[in-house]
Design goal:
heterotrimer; A alpha/beta (371); B mainly alpha (559); C alpha+beta (367); A: 371 residues; alpha/beta; D-Maltodextrin-Binding Protein, domain 2; 2 domains; 14 helices; globular; B: 559 residues; mainly alpha; two-stranded antiparallel ribbon; 1% strand; Putative spermidine/putrescine transport system substrate-binding protein (chain A); SBP (chain A); signal (chain A); transport (chain B); Putative spermidine/putrescine transport system permease protein (chain B)
Chain lengths: 371, 559, 367
Amino acid sequence: MKLTKTLLATSALTVAAGAAWAESHMSSEMTLVSWGGAYQASQQKAYSEPYMEMHPDVAVVWDESSNEAVAKLRAMNEAGNVTWDLVDVVASDAIRLCDEGLAMEIDPEEDLAAAPDGTSAEDDFGDLLVSDCFIPQIVYSTTFGYRTDMVPEGVDAPSQICDVFDLETYPGKRALEKRPINNMEWALLCDGVAKEDVYDVLETDEGQDQALAKLETIKDEVIWWSAGADTPQLLADGEIFIGSTYNGRLFSVIEEQDQPVAMMWDAQVFDLDGWIIPTGLDDAALARVKDFVKFATDTQRLADQAKYISYGPARASSAPLVGQHADLGIDMAPHMPTDPNNAQNTFLYNYEFWADYRDDIDAKFQAWLAQ
Amino acid sequence: MSNASEAPTPDDGLRLMESADTGPVLAADGTPLKRSLGRALRRQKLRALMLIAPLLLFVLLTFIAPIADMLFRSVENQIVSDTLPRTVVALKDWDSTSGELPSEQIYEAAYYDIFIAAERKLHTRLGSRLNYELTGASSLFRKSGRGLDDIGEVYQDQFEDLNKAWKDGETWAQVMGSDAWLSEANSWGKSSGKLAPALELRDGIAELLPKTAESYSSFANFVRVDDGDNPASEDPWSLVYAALWQDLTSGADVSAYSGPNADLLQEAASAAQDFESISFTDGFAEIDEDWVDTPIWQTIKTYSPKYTSGYFLNSVDMKKTPDGPALRDEDQRIYGLLFKRTMFMSLVITISCIMLGYPVAWILANLPARTANLLMILVLLPFWTSLLVRTSAWKVMLQQQGVINDVLVWLGLVGDGDRLVMINNQFGTIVAMTHILLPFMILPLYSVMQTIPQTYLRAAKSLGATNWTAFWRVYFPQSVPGIGAGSILVFILAIGYYITPEIVGGTTGTFISNRIAYHISSSLNWGLAAALGAILLAVVLILYWAYDKIVGIDNVKLG
Amino acid sequence: MADTANSEAFVEFERVQKSYDGETLVVKDLNLALPKGEFLTMLGPSGSGKTTCLMMLAGFETATHGDIRLDGVAINNIPPHKRGIGMVFQNYALFPHMTVAENLSFPLEVRKIGKSEREKKVKRALEMVQMGEFGGRRPAQLSGGQQQRIALARALVFEAELVLMDEPLGALDKQLREHMQFEIKRIADNLGITVVYVTHDQTEALTMSDRVAVFNDGRIQQLAPPDVLYEAPENSFVAQFIGENNTLDGTIKEIANGVALVELDDGGLIDAKPVNVSQPGERTRVSIRPERVEFNVDRLAEGSHTLKAEVQEFIYMGDIFRTRLKVAGNNDFIIKTRNAPDQVRLKPGEIVEIGWQPEDCRALDAN
């Protein structure tokens, strides 16, 4: 009895001493880069606040630069002075940062926490580990919201992606993102191309022309957005009938601002958002960041984030833990893009395709827009 | 100065001057006056220079240097030759227009280059660079980074099957490294905080096994510097096995080798002839069919020089092809249109600023100082609000469900069904930018007008001129320098604006700067952005020069 | 006096008032008439209303009340450019972006005069001011005096019959100013134009004008030819403002035969000519020019009153001597004497007796 006690105490001491040693070798400051707004707030509540409770000595600084993170990181890297410790980016940017050598490759087994049931991180994240540098947090989708009060009388509310292209049944302005990604796929889909052939068609010049020609049919009625907040605002002002944006933005227009807006989930495009660790961190900073990332991407933390914003956690094991909205008290699961009811017809952002074709198609798309 | 007692007095100089009737005029201390003056002036200049040195340094660092950097980036293209040095050399003799595939030597060079680049994680960077020129290059290089291992592994496996010793990094180190290096490396520890000793090749090994020596050196250097490990104990890349096989099968006389593991090497030399082999061409073809097609090789060859005109050609809707510069496909031409539009809209914005700013400046200049200062605050007020806020305010004003349309509908001037489209087009951009840039027109105008006394107008009237004639013939010509200064300011600011056009410009109201911003922050094509910026800079300088020729730059007054 | 000149007046102010703020009058009840060809100077300290009068005449200010007539026509509502009045401004107001010839040509152009005639007139005007070769220069390339001439030529080139000049010589140095005074006067006389000239320099006013209107406090204090103004100021402001002047304060004792006996405040008695005093017991300020004071009292008439004076200072000024005395408590009593061979030079500390002809000493209001 006495012996076990002593043993326990000794081992506890050893563990504590070990932890203290590790702690002393970690930087006490950490700069996290994110998108600002409600999304960053959800990260603060779900990740950084609990982390700081555990480590009161650590100061966390937030920088709202994610939308220009790639360019800034490259500039920092060229100047040899990387001041960011952890950067929140969309998956396509993560791939690019990884390609450019600006993001560090991670080892999921070592750097990420396993699921509570013992499933390894690699299996728990599964296919969402789209790049060697990318640590996914959420699945979000680009989808449509429409004004319920502007649906013409005697017509059903829009329920399919091709309703966006149907000016006769659904007159009014549309809002689409000022880039080819997603729009080209939707256009082809509504021009008779089968879903599985979309990218094969889009690889060809003819396919690109076909998509642009389809978009041409609604061009005069489109307001092109470049900031995620544009479409919700345009919807709230009644400037447009239907518009694409991130599903979380629409959630806040519908549920938080109580606007007469509804979701149209058809052909929503899934995309991922997550962390990357910049290359070139010193050992202390890297140790701290790795410690934080392991914590902030564990099953519970990812599920917690969904309390504050309607984006789906990137871990399979987090999904059952998603509960109710922290303020509104509504069940969040039906608002997740990944909810089976919403995800009947979906796309996953084709990272490989767009990494190759982005420059080329964007040039064509912009030339088409400018005419 | 310090020994004033001994220093000659001016009187001495006078006496000297009197005594020396001929010859150069001398200063008080007897030195020629000219030299003395020169020295005094030089000292003065030096002191003045030191006084402005911080400013000069600041201007150089923050103004000249970035522009120089931008100009450099617009032609810089070293990434290709730095990442693929062997390939670039090998491609020199390949005729890119022949339609024939490159030779096996070129594939071999590319194998070594891309393999090493992939180890150093540089291949994807090159991929994104070449993707600007050839769609698909990005994924091609990403794939190849992983795929090239397969080629070397063919040989690695066979060597290792032949003798387990080949698996061991130390075997390789003993063969390749000199004895001195080996003993030094074996006593090195990571905790020393220093890099491991640099590889010193064994005498004669570079002649005996040239490719192996070269690739092993690359490997050793990488392990030592990039990983901070000891090359003597690390297992080499599969590339090194492929190199050894090549050396052994191309007639290396290993019997001449007498260092450690000579038996191993001889055993391998005789076995290597019967190894299963794979040509580099086939290896590349296995990774991606695109490697056995000409476009990727043409692109690499076209962009292999250290400096390229490619970005500039791209900025004027052209592209480099193996046959020389050519126009881009019509559906990809955008920059010419955008340059023209930027110029045109900036001109319209400048003119609207003159039209609106002139009367305001006139009123300000002719009001009593107190009232003028109060009004001046109103003029400057836009400066104190965020650009985004100001632009977004115009959105609220101009959109179809916005304030102006609401008022027009309420007044019955416009039907509810056909509200005016005043935003997300050129009109919106012009309105919002005129508003934002107006102070830059009013301020120089105001300061010039303040210096024009009212008596000129009175004089003109007393001489019989009507109000209009007095204004047009007497006042206006004197305010032209203010218009000139304001116009230059507004125009140059306008062509560089991108936030406002991005928010309210829609598709027809965007500027060339929006594309520059896109290439800086989204596509990361900084070379193209720099070339576009350089062209914009050149246009501004040309306009400035033309203005100087036509109006005269002395006729610009900011105050 | 205005009434008498009415019929032949070329320029006429009648009961003109001007207020800028609606509370105070800058010009109070101005009546003034000048015949064709007259050179009239408005003289006064700054703020006396003289420039306002000129500007009302030019049309740049409107009269709050009253009429201004030019050649018998009320011009109150005629805009400046239709009045046909030439004007020379204080800083010349030559248009800096035009050459001299273009400046001169400007009034002719706006009158739609043909090119050849324009050139002829410009040439003639330039020759008149002896600036014939300067037609191609810009104003900035000319000296102050030359600019002045051009400004004058510009005001005359369209043959205005009335020319207004607002302190035109203010910016020139003394020598040039004197030269230009003569020049302007000569040209004005030659052309027979009417000139209204504003200045605060009394020498300028005295040397150039046919008549001088002395302004103070929004009113004309005296309107008279220069000699009258100097010799016979009508009130103590004019006496003080024009030329150098000695003043002594006192009380009228009696007035008889056009001579007033004044008892000075220290008890001394003097004779003076009553100007705007009428009754014994009235306070008065007597004024006497320094050059009219006599200290050789033998030259005065029998029984003249004299005063004792103590010499304070003797200043040699070349053509004249200037002696400062203490007289009846006034420490700044000045005597000017000509530097003649037999002239006495007084020494400080000397006590002398001074006196004057009663008509040289004017008993004025006590202000």
